[in-house]
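Practice record 12: protein with NDP.
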Amino acid sequence: MFEKSTWIRLPRNVVVGHGVIDRVVDVVDDLHLQGRPLFVTSPTPKEVAADPIAADFEAAGVDPAVVTVEEATFEAVEEVIETAEAEEVSYLVGIGGGKAIDIAKMASHHLEMGFLSVPTAASHDGVISNRGSVPDGDTRHSVAAKPPLAVVADTEVLAQAPWELTTAGCADIISNYTAVMDWRLAKRLKDVEYSEYAASLSEMTAEILVDNADLIRPGLEESAWVVSKALMSSGVAMSIADSSRPASGAEHLFSHQLDRLAPGAALHGHQVGVGSIMTAYLHGGEDGIWRDIRDALNSIDAPTTADELGIDDETVLEALTTCHAIRDRYTILGDGMNERAAREVATKTRVIS
Ligand SMILES: NC(=O)C1=CN([C@@H]2O[C@H](COP(=O)(O)OP(=O)(O)OC[C@H]3O[C@@H](n4cnc5c(N)ncnc54)[C@H](OP(=O)(O)O)[C@@H]3O)[C@@H](O)[C@H]2O)C=CC1
Ligand SMILES: O=C(CO)COP(=O)(O)O
Ligand SMILES: [Zn+2]
C-alpha cells in the first residue's frame, strides 16, 4: 500500500528587484497581516534597512517594535521571543544577514507567528529556507522552522553591501556541488532520506550561478539579481527536502568547526567554499571537480586558501580532523580524517602551503 506523504512549505510572496524595500508595507497588506510587527535585525542592517522600513510603517500608522541581535545563538532566539511577548506583536520581520533572518525564523516558529525575510546581504542561502542554523557547545543544530511568508530582496540594497558578502553568497551556492555529493553518498551507504528533485535543484542552482559568473561583478546591481535568485532556489531545495542536506555537507561541517576554532575570522560562505574544494578532492581525487570548484570561486573573487580566509594552516587541519563529530550527518569524512590525510588534501588542493 502507498503510504507516503509530504508537506512542502514555501513563501507566498517573493519580491525581488530595484527599490522593493519600499514595498514591505504593501507586502504586509497583501498577506492581510494585522497588528504590530517586531523587527529582528543586527547593528548594520538596522541602519541600512530596518530604520527606513520602520519609517514607512510609522507613516502607515503602525509602530514597529525592534530588537537588535549580535549573534546567532539560542539565547538571542529567547530574547526575541521575550520581546515579542512583552511588546504584544503579531508577526516578525527579519532584516539583515543570515544571523538576523535565522533568529527571526526560529523565534517566529516558536511563537507560531508568521515572519517576513528582508535580506540586506546576498551572503547565504537561508533567506527563504525552512531551517535555522545555531551553534550549541560542541555541536551545531539545523533547527526545523517554517519558511517566511514573504521575502523582500532589494537588489539595490544588496548591491550596495560590501562585495565580500556577495562573494560569500556565491560560495555558499557553489558548495552545493559537494553537499549533494555527500547526500548521495549517505543515501548509498546509510540509506538516508533523499530527494532527487531537491538534489537536482540544488546542483542546477550552482551550475546556473557558475555559468553566469561573468555577470557577478562589484557594483553591478545585476549581480545581486543573479545571486539572489540562486540563494532563493537553493533555499527552496532545502524546503523541498525538509532538511539542509541539499546545501550542507562536509564543507559545512568544516565551516561550523572553524566558527568554533576561529570565531569571526571569515564569513560562512567563504569558509564553506574553501571546505568544498577539499571535500571535492576527497570525493573525486586528483581528477575530480575540485579544480572546477576552485576556479569558480576564483572567478567571483571568493577565497580559495587558508591565508585568504585569514585562518592559519594548523587551525584548518584541526577543523578538518574534528568536524565530522559536529553533528550526526554522514559525509565523505566518514568517522574522521587523521592528521596526515588532512594535511595531504589541504596541501594538494593548495588550501595550505
Ligand atoms: N538557515 C539556513 O538555511 C542558513 C543559515 N545560514 C547562517 O547564516 C549565517 C551567515 O550569514 P551571514 O549573512 O554571512 O552572517 P551575518 O548575518 O553575521 O552577516 C555578516 C556580516 O554582514 C554584515 N551586513 C549585513 N548586511 C549588510 C549591509 N547591507 N551592509 C553592510 N554590512 C552588512 C553584518 O553586520 P552586523 O555585524 O552589524 O550584523 C555582519 O557583520 C550563519 O549563522 C549561517 O549558519 C547560512 C546559510 C543557510
Ligand atoms: O548553511 C546552510 C546551507 O547553506 C545550512 O546550515 P546547516 O549546516 O546548519 O544545516
Ligand atoms: Zn551555508
